[in-house]
Every structure is written in C-alpha cells, then in structure tokens.
C-alpha cells in the first residue's frame, strides 16, 4: 500500500529543499513550488478520507514498526486512527490555505516558504507518529520553524513573542522528554512504541508507584496544556497571535493548539488511564475556567486579533470539558470541537488579516460601518462569527453540545457554569461585530476595496465544511466515533458525581 | 396520495431556504437589482409551502384522531453514545396549526413587504432574511426532537438579529439587534441546562431520548424523581420556561422586544408578533406532557404570564411611538398566552396565539401603512384624523383593535374569554389580574386608535403633503388579516355559547388540538355554566367600557389624562420610562460585567503574564548572577588551578636543569632519605 503518512510527512520537506535550491529573486517561483507541494497533500488527504475504514477503532495506514535507532529500540512507526485522521485532514486543508494566505509575503520569500513547508512536515509527523521518540522528534521539529516565522516575519514585538513561544514550548518539551525516558527505562522490553505502552498501561503500566504515575501524568499534562493552551499557561498565545503574520496565526490556531489536546488523548489517556480519571475533575475545572475566563477576557480586548486569540482560549476549554467526561459523547465532542475550532478560527484569523492588510491596524474601536464599505467581506464575517458563537446549523454548535452533554454527566456544576459561555461568546462576538462593521461609515476607510478573489478562495472551503459539519455532523463524527467510543470504554466509566 | 403529501412536506421548510439562498447569492453578487425577480422568488418560496401545508392539513383532518401524528424522517443527524437525533419532522395538529400561521401570514407579510420596501436599496438582502426566517421558524415547529427545535429556535434568533439591525448604519438599531440576541441567549442558557438535566436523568433511568413522541412515554418515568427538595420535573420545566421568557418576551427577559421595533415594520408583524415570539408558547404546548407533571412549574408560568400581561399593559398607556405601544401590547398578550399555558388551558393558549397572530399582524401592518403614509413618522402625538386619508388602513386597524380589546364577536373576545374562564377556575387572583389587564388593553388601544385616526389633525404640513393610502400589495394583506381578526374567533366558540346558539359542533380548535396535548392528571373543578355566562358578560362589559373610556379620554376630555400626568409626575415618569428596568439591568448586569472583563484582562496581563515575565526576569537575574559567579569563582577556580600549576611548574622547572650531575646528586639524596627513614 502507498505510504500515505510518510508521503505527507516528507513531501513538504522535499519541497522545502527544492525551494532552498531555487536561485535568488525568483519569488513567484517559490510561491508556486510551495503551493504545488501542498496540493498533493490535499489529494492524499482526500484519498485517506475515502479509504479510511470508519468501523475500526484501531490504527490504519500503518507503516512499520521499522527499526530506526535499534540500540535504544527506537522505531519508525506511523499510523492513524479516528483521532488522528481528523487532524490529518484538517492539517492538509489548513496547509494549503496557509500557503495561499502567505502570497503577499514580501520579506525573504525563499526562507519563509522553506520554513513553512518544514513546519508542515512536523505537523503531519506529530499526528501520525506512533513511536514516542518519533513523536517527540516531530514535536521539536515544529518548534524551530515556528520560532523563526514569528520572530522574523512578525509584527513590532515579534522577538518577544517568538522567544516567549519558544521557551514556553521548550519547557513543556523538557517535561515530555523526562516522562518519555522514564517510560523507556521502566517499561517491559524498553520500548517507545505507544501502542505497546498503552497495552502495558492496562495492567497499571510500568510504574508501580501511584505517586510516580501521577507525577508523570502531570508532567505530560503540563507539556500539552501549554500547547492547548490551558489557563494559567495561556499568555504566550495572545502575544504570539498578535505578532504572527496572518497565515502563521491560522496555522497556530487551527493546528498547533490541537496538538495539546491531541497529545492528552493520544498519550496521557491511554498510557495513564487511572491517573487521567483521578485528575479528570481538574481537567473539567480547567475547561470551565478556560471557557468563562477566556470569554470574559475576550470581551475586554481592544485589538481584533487579541480578541480572537482569547476566543481560542475559550473555545479550547470545550475540548477539556468534553474529554474530562470519559464518555463517548464527550470524547466525540472534544475531537469534533478540535476540528471545528480549527476551521472556524482559521476563518476568523483570515478575516482579520483582510482588514489588517487594508487598514494596517486592528483597533476594534478604530473602524465602524465596514458593512457598508465592504458588504461581501461583512457577509462572510457574519457567517464566521455566528459559527464561532455556536449557532445551531453550523458546526460549532454540534461539538459544543456534545461537550456539554459529556461534561454534564459527571461534572454538572462545572458544566452549568461553562454553559454561560454561550451567552458571553454571543456578547463579545456581536459587540465586536457591531463596533467594526455596523453604525455610521468611517470616512477614513470609505475607499477600501471589498474582499478579493484570492481571499474568498481561502475562506470558502472552510465555510463549506462548517456548514456541512453543522447540517450533517455524522460525516465528521463517523470518522472518529468508533475510536472515541473504544477509548471511552477503555477508560472505564467514572462514578457519577451527581449534583 | 397521502404518502405523496408527506413526502412533499420537506419542501415546506426547504423552499424558503432555497429562496433565501437564491436571493442571498443575488445580493452577494452585487448585480443590478431587479425587484420583480427578487420578490417573485421570495413570494413563491413561502406561498408554495403554504399550499402544501393546506393540503397536508386537509389530509390530516380526514384521518381518524388517533393517527393524526406522522413522523417523517430524512437522515440521522447525530448518533453518539446514547445520544441519537434525526433530522425528522413531526406532523400533528399542533405543528400543522403553527405551520399554517407561519406560511399563511408569512405569505401575506411577504406580499405586504413588496409595497412597503419598494424604495429599499437592500431589497434582495431583506427578502433573503425574511425567507431564511420562515425556514428557521418552520424547523422550530416541525422538528420532531429537542435539538431540531433548538436549531430553529436559534435560527429565528439569528434572523431576528439580522432584521432588527437591518438598517445597521444606525448604531442604535444595530445595538437593538445585538440586545435581542444576547438577551435570548440568557434564556437559552437556562434552556440548555434544563435539557441536559432532563436528558441525563432519562438516560440514568434507561430511557434516553430527545424525540418528542418517545419523550411522551419516557417522562412518565420521572415521576417522583427529586433533586434536592424540588421535583426534578419542576426544575426542568422552570429552566425551559426561562428559555421561553427570552424568546417570548416575558418578565424578566422581555426587555429586548420593545427595542426590536427598530426593524422594518413587516418584520415586527411577522417575527415580533405573529410567529417567533410565540415559540415559547409552542414549546410548552409541544412538551405539555412534561409541564403537566409539575403543578408547581405551571403555577410559576401562570403567575409570570398574567403579571406580564398587566405590567406591559400599564406601560402601553404612556408610550407615544405607535410601534412601541404595539410592542408592549404584544408582551402583554403573550402574557395571556403563558397565563393560559400555566393554568393548563393549553388549547386556550394556542387559540389566543392564533387570534393574536391575526389581529396583531394586522395592527402592525396597519401601523406600517400609517408610517409609510406619514413618511416615516411614528409619534402618535403628531398624527390625528388620519381616517379620511387612509380609509382601508383605518377600517382594518379599527376592527383589529376591537378584536384585541375583546369585543364580542371579534376573535380576541373568544380566546381571551376562554383564558380568563380557565384562570377563574384556577385562581380568582389570577383572573382579577387578567381582567384588569384586559380593561387596560381596551383603554390604551383605543387611545392609540383615537390619537392616530380621530380628533383634530396634528400632522405637519410637510407630511400632509405626501399623505396617501398604501398600494394594493399592502392593503390586501390588511384586509385578509382583518377578516381573520373578525371571524377567527369562531374556531373556538366555547361549548356553553355553542349550546346557547344551538351549534352542532363548538370549540373546533380544542377538538383538533387535543391529540397533541396531555393535560394534568387532576382536572380542575369547573364552575357552572351560569358563572361562565356571567363572567363572559362581565369581561365584555369591562372591554366595552374600557373602549369608551379610551375613546372619550383622548378625544373630548383630553384634559383628564393630562392633568393626571401632571398631578402625579413621578408615577407618570416611572411608567413612561418603563419602570427603569432597562436602566436597572444596565447598571447591575451590563456595567458590572464590563468592569469584570476589564479587571480580568488586567489580571491576565499583570498577574498571570506578570508571573511568566517575572519568571523570565528572575531567570535573567539568576543567569547574570551565575554568570558573574561563573566568571569570578568557577572560572576563577579554573584559572587558579592553572596558576597553581604554572607556579608549580616554575618551581619544578628549577630542578630540571638538564645536567646529569644534578640528577645524580638528587637521586643520591633521595636514596639517603629513604635509607635513613627505613632503617634509622
């Protein structure tokens, strides 16, 4: 069988090398190479979508395990289940859109696109690696290009934001490295194979001490929590988003944040089932804090992009609430919410980029009446904003409801408080919309061009997906329902907490 | 034939959606506006569904009572864990009644809009929203499960937002749309929590379902389930009712509806009078089996309903904006409907929903015709004596006013009387509140009619110049609605009266709706026919005197209300400013929320991020210190070692002379030392 996963992981790398070899000054050639590198990824993603067997909860498209560094039993082992496949599809789509959205980049085009493609390699790798060491390597591979992409092509405070991002993530990586090495030394047969480790975990795993298991769980959780980001580790996000160029913000929000949640569900849960259940109350509480705190902070923001960054904090809280439930409803909600947040927030960042490209500022109070000046832009924004505030019929609603449904079973109080996010999100979204788009026309901007074709093309795929996933969510849920149901069974059922 | 009709039923919501899509794409494309194209599409998109609905209705009436419930499934929507929901419709008497209202009155209002919006540049956008609204509203009433209903519920909220803020260049109007949506979301918060509570309790009993037909049996297992000191059903019902107070503008969440009058007037007629605002009433009717299980929740609903009816009617006295008067009147009439639902007179509630849809839509459209004729003027103090200029508008408006005031034999009389009759059997106090509100309704409605159409003209020269009766597209809907407002009441002639007039079948609506509803187990003892007649005559008397008082006070004796207002300026101010509820909410909720936001944003920046930056700072200092230590001590030690070594070297070098004699002397000396040490 065609090695889809390795292809998707290493093809961008090849593209990056090709770009590195192009002569200086051929900026357009570089752009086209980047685009032509991502298109096969998209084709492969569609192929995977068609070939993926929805009824299985096990790994598919498996490659390996092939020995890689055999001295330490490190293997090259790739494969995807329902959890990863949705992320792979999302990554493929976002990558293509990110290249399109980067068309206007003028500064050192060659290095920009080379780094971008390197980043893609890391992203696909993380979502398909089944060997802990391999996962770690891809995780670190992503870090570097992201640091440069923010630090070189970012806004005025780009260096601060890039270093903050880098150090914060590195701190998490160190914790992951420690836990990973513990696994290696304590596991039966010294392996990094995640599936084998999960099997061993069923008999309470390689670590006999509960306290040690809890400590390892916390270490991993903090590593992933930084990526999600979970309160109180979230402050790198608004800075990184505000400084990053549009396309990088899109990738950051749509794919990189998902790796946190993905990591928790791929590694923390199967490898530490008992610790995960032990800490599930904490996850639910953090989810609630993310939802409400993020929404309240979003309402106070004056920078359009910062507002959306905080809305990300809020929306990722739903993932935490859903996963804390250990129910099929909640797990499905979490994965769907990851996917939906990816598509919806990608739209939001692209939309902010549209107005920023024209006005060169993002002050929410500095606009007004844009709906009269740019009616099409405002129509698409309305769609995206209502998707973000969870309008039934669009995708965000389905995942929010599933997360609530999951959460309510075991943590009703946290969930009830989280439901208030429904009101707060509507308030900050519509209030921002009101200030930017409605009211009297701001004379300063009355000559602005409406949204152009390239911008529309970047947005339309997301709009279609958001609509389809809202009207017929089964098409998305079927992808991961079996995997998530199996995981929820594997986690056992929590004792019902009651009100 | 029958199957064919039901297989066509999906067209009922789908056509308005398609219409919205076509006109939406047209508006988006920015192509040159061709009005006939736009309104032909929009009208067809709602009128064809009306015809299909009528067909379905006729078909269902021919079925035996027990089979008047058809579930039409399209595709599975969700199937996760124990949570299953399909995209499917429930066609039964209750949903059919509402579907007729939505498509029927919807068609009339679409037609009216052709005339009313004829100068509007965003014509296509307007009809897009209007069609989209009909789609969402139809999903709301046709959906066969709670999620489907909620999709419609929020969908109409979206359209309401878009249409209230239709003229969004005016910040105040745009803000009114936002207010409507957010206040509704507060209600939705309670609704979602209620739904979650209901679902998981059912699930724990092994009856997890969200489908209305299955729920009917499933909820019986909730009998006796307690949550703390309340029965679970009561808590669920109250939470869902809070959701309804948002959508249907009841105390405490009614504040958005008066502001919603910022939208175009046909929108007020369709959304904020005839259809959307009655969604809460429909929801209670749809889940009557649940609400019937909790007398406590019903009592709360009845109380809130009747109090809202009176509360809003009083505000109606002081308002001068013709649409604001109608808005408060809508809040008040919705209060009656909830009052009816609360005393478990579900059919009476739906009956009033129906008659209210007729007369209030007519009144709103009439006010639109007046505003249209007055070139946009909405203040009734600047009108007067318009009846000569707007004969059709005047006639239809007047008839509808008599209907809302409850004059026999107009429609409002029958529905309101039935509600008051049930309220009387339930509680004399509620009845008294209801009757007082009815008297108030008659007075303030006549005040409005009188100030608008009678007395001396206060119209400005400028407006007088343009004064004209509206075109046919606007007057035809008015006439049809006025006809319904006059005769609609005969759908629900009470048994006592029917008996009196020797009718064979009375209370058609009640018999029609019965299969959809479940009433509380313990029926209330009903007072005698004699009492019923007496109450009827009494409330009719109240209504007539109210009308007369209203007419006289605002034509011949205008000095009385003026002197009253002057005598009690505080009271007048208090009511004129709607009891300062908006101001109260703003001060208590909105401002504190904004303060909390700013505080948290600052907290996030200074404390949380402060810790991060502080850690970085501390690390930097530590790095600096350790750098210094490194340079001074660690490196110093290294250098010291080096120095010591080199010093040692300097000394040691002196021994390395390279002369063989020196080495021999040294060796000899060493041997002597060893020999002496060993043997000495």
Mean pLDDT of chain A: 90
Main β sheet profile of chain A: 2 strands, antiparallel
Oligomer: heterodimer
- Indicate the structural class of chain B: mainly alpha
Strand arrangement within the widest β-sheet of chain A reads 1-2
Shape of chain B: elongated
Q: Approximately what portion of the residues of chain B adopt beta-strand conformation?
A: under 5%
Number of separate structural domains of chain A: 2
Beta percentage of chain A is under 5%
Low-confidence stretches of chain A: none
Spans of chain B of 5+ residues with little confidence (pLDDT < 50)?
A: none
| Distance between the ends of chain B | 135 Å
How confident is the prediction overall: mean pLDDT of chain B?
Answer: 88
Shape designation of chain A: globular
Number of strands of chain B: 4
Helicity range of the residues of chain A? over 70%
Topology of chain A as a string of helices (H) and strands (E) = HHEEHHHHHHHHHHHHHHHHHHH
Give the proportion of residues in helices of chain B: over 70%
Structural commentary:
- The complex is a heterodimer of chains A (499) and B (680).
- Chain A is mainly alpha-helical.
- Chain A folds into 2 domains: 1-278, no CATH class; 297-499, no CATH class.
- Helices cover 74% and strands 3% of the residues of chain A.
- Chain A has 21 helices and 2 strands.
- In chain A, strands 1-2 form a two-stranded antiparallel ribbon.
- In chain A, helix 14 crosses helix 21.
- In chain B, the strands form 2 sheets. Chain B has a two-stranded antiparallel ribbon with strand order 1-2.
- The radius of gyration of chain B is 38 Å and the shape is elongated.
- Among the domains of chain B are: 294-576, no CATH class; 582-674.
- Chain B has helices at 2-7, 11-29, 35-62, 93-116, 123-142, 146-164, 171-204, 212-218, 232-247, 256-259, 265-274, 279-286, 288-291, 295-316, 322-342, 346-373, 391-405, 411-426, 428-453, 461-466, 472-487, 495-501, 508-513, 529-553, 559-567, 569-576, 581-655, 660-679; strands at residues 70-80, 83-91, 226-227, 230-231.
- Chain B has 28 helices and 4 strands.
- Chain B is mostly helical and 680 residues long.
- In chain B, a hairpin with a 2-residue loop joins strand 3 and strand 4 (230-231).
- Chains A and B meet through helix 6, helix 12, helix 14, helix 16 and helix 17 of A and strand 1, helix 6, helix 7 and helix 27 of B.
